[in-house]
Amino acid sequence: MFDTLSDRLSGIFTKLRGKGRLTDADIDATAREIRLALLEADVALPVVKAFVFNVKERARGAEVSQALNPAQQIIKIVHEELINVLGGEGRRLQFAKTPPTVIMLAGLQGSGKTTLAGKLSRWLKGQGHQPLLVAADLQRPNAVNQLQVLAGRAGVDVYAPQPGNGVGDPVQVAKDSIDYAERHAKDIVIVDTAGRLGIDAEMMQQARDIRDAVSPDEVIFVIDAMVGQDAVQTAEAFRDGVGITGVVLSKLDGDARGGAALSVRHVTGEPILFASTGEKLEDFDLFHPDRMASRILGMGDVLTLIEQAEQAFDDEQKEKMTSKLLGGEQFTLEDFLEQLIAVRRMGPIANILGMMPGMGQMKAQLDELDDSHFDRVTAIIRSMTPGERTNPKIINGSRRARIANGSGVTVMDVNQLLNRFTDAQKMMKQMGGMMGLPGARRKATKSPKNKRKGTKGGSSRPRAGGGGLPAGFPGGMPQLPPGMDPNALGGGPGGFKLPNLDFNKLMKPQKDDDDKR
Asked: pTM (2 decimals)?
């Protein structure tokens, strides 16, 4: 969503690099370009004015004039001001002292309230709560049925005594749901209310009546991040008419300019609690202003990447891999497959790499990555026998032909996978040797063949702080910061490692000239 704004800001900062000192003219020119970039991103005018004023005031202060690198200091200022615009420190849900905690969702029709209700209930269940969804949107066709389907997918209960489609009293349903939640030991009640295509008196009155009937602890306004300035005006109307306590940004995976997301916190004065980034129930998480600001400025989001990895790799899998590393055991194709499946659970590979620092300069290349290659690798490994996965050395020519036929690929594809797996095995041996256990280290280096490789300069030991992308990625790519190699993430006990894949194989197939015509 913020790609256009990120590109504009990156271009502005590039012009500043190399300047030993910033004059007032440089600061004014930079502020003017930042103002244009924010306006083009559809950020509200009051937000733009306050943002640019703060940047100019701080840029003229001592923190820049005395800095060794003024351009970097400007970037730091813009980063901090973006965090302030997005809310500073993120706020979390306020729970009632005596259960159940009541959360009321409000917003226009089409903003994603019902889907958000399912996502929020799933997230809360993962936090150890027992949420109850309440179908109080009795106006929109099939809204009750949609909520019931989402509740089933999220594994939570739903209170839906009325069929909806214009039948039933939403205020009474919401009121009765509190008693139902208390009887069934539900500690959180999420009330899905009706929306309209536009703000009207009837809509606001119904929202106020539901609010008065259930006395919610949180009134969350669901804002469609793709709408633009209309979304900000709608948020103001709900703030004044109902009294919202927080905001959720939905559809952040869209290609809109993102101005609403940057404006809503400043305009409404209410914090952004969550961000919804896709259609799946798991595409939902807490909103972190500092992480969002870093993404906008192309600095990556390593913390979110680590959190996703922790969720994708279960504790048993981490312990198993750690024990293998420390015990000097062989890394098998079965382990390789488990890691590959876990990486796929983290989401599209382009999204994973996009959260790493330095990847903002490679948006076009990341857009061309094709996840279907991971499916082919999975098919190849699953076409092997258990013995072949444990000991790939027994895979001779006839076995390779059988595996290729069984997985629908060529023998060359099988050969390439086995070669890359051999490299991954060597890496895992080295990681075991670096754990500090003498036995593991001796086992990883006792082979005379390894010593000969070292004397010829061909050692496969990873370079200290080796940046850059994996071998095979399209040429001309800038290097990543030290220690940010995608294939070396979490290189410690319980960490994980991206499979050493040929990224040229991940590129989407290009159409030839005849297809284009």
From this structure: 0.61
* pLDDT tens, residue by residue, 292-339: 777 777 665 555 666 566 666 666 666 666 666 555 567 788 887 877
Question: CA 501, 507, 508, 509 torsion: positive or negative?
Answer: negative
The two most distant CA atoms of the chain are separated, in Å, by: 83
What is the sign, positive or negative, of the torsion defined by CA atoms of 425, 426, 432, 435? negative
Q: How far apart are CA 242 and CA 315, in angstroms?
A: 44
Residue 408 CA to residue 376 CA, distance in Å, equals: 8
Q: How far apart, in whole angstroms, are the C-alpha atoms of residue 317 and residue 374?
A: 20
Cα separation of 35 and 29, whole Å?
10
- The CB-side HSE value for 304 (13 A sphere, CA atoms) comes to 26
Give the integer Cα–Cα distance in Å for 99 and 272: 24
Decide: 509 and 372 in contact? Cβ < 8 Å: no
Separation of CA 488 from chain center: 19
- Give counts: helices (H), strands (E), the chain: 24, 8
3-state secondary structure of 246: strand
Cα–Cα distance for residue pair 31/39, rounded to 1 Å? 12
Give just the sign of the alpha carbon dihedral 94, 296, 27, 50: negative
Nearest to 261 by CA among 299, 294, 289, 219: 289
**HSE toward the beta carbon, residue 463, CA cutoff 13 A:** 10
Please spell the DSSP secondary structure of 95-141, one letter per residue.
PPSSSPEEEEEE--TTSSHHHHHHHHHHHHHHTT--EEEEE---SST
